[in-house]
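can u pls check wat happens w/ zinc ion
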Amino acid sequence: MDDLYDKLYGLTPVIINMCRAMCDSSVKANAEHRADAGIKQYIIRRQIGECCEWCEKFAHTYELGKEPKEVYWRHDNCKCIVVCKSGRGYTDVWSKKKFTTYRDARREREQEILNEQKQREFERQIFTTPEVLGTRTPGEWKKYLEEIGFEVKPLNRGMLAGIPFEKGGGFKINFKIDGRYYQYHPEKCSHHNGAYYKVSSGRSGVLRYEMNGKLKKGKRKHG
Ligand SMILES: [Zn+2]
Ligand SMILES: [Zn+2]
C-alpha cells in the first residue's frame, strides 16, 4: 500500500490530501455509541467512473473500525466518494453532508466532481487564455464562480478591504497551489487606471487585465 502511495505521490505534481475531514469526531463518537448498541456502521468508498489504480485498491465497503486509514484519503482531481453509513443514513466524509440514501449522496458527489472540473478549467484558462475574462462581466463571473463551488470573498487589502462586491467592493478567490489567486478590483479606489482583474501565480508573478481580458498597459497611478 505504501509503495502505491509513494508511486502516486511521486508521479503526480499534486498533493494527496490526508483527508481533512476524516469521519468527523461527532460521527466517531456516535459510532462508538452505536457499536455499543450493536448497530454496525460502514465506510463505503467507490470510484465514480474511473479514478486511478490507487483509489481502486480502496474502493470497498468496510465495517467501521476495520477500515484502513487510506480510505479517507483523496488526491487532487479524485473522482471517488466516501460515505459513512449508519442507521440514520449516509454522511459524505469529505463534505460532511448527510443523505437519506446512497443514491442521493452519489448524485451530490457527481455534481461536486463536475464543479471541481470546472474550477480547474477556470484556473487553467486564466493562466493560459486570459482573454476568457472578457466573456463575462465581473458580476457574472462572481455568480458563475460561486455556482461552481469557489469561495468568493471580498478583497482583504486596500481601501476596499472587506467591502462586498454588492456594495461596490471587489472580490477574490485563492487557488490551492503555487500562491495562485484571481481578483477583481473595481474602478473605485483603483491605482491602475480603472477596473481590472489581477491574476497571480508563483510562476507568472502578478498580471493585470482589462475587463475585456487584454493585458493592462500603463503605469501605476499614485495616490
Ligand atoms: Zn484516484
Ligand atoms: Zn479517487
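The first strand starts at residue 16 and ends at 17.
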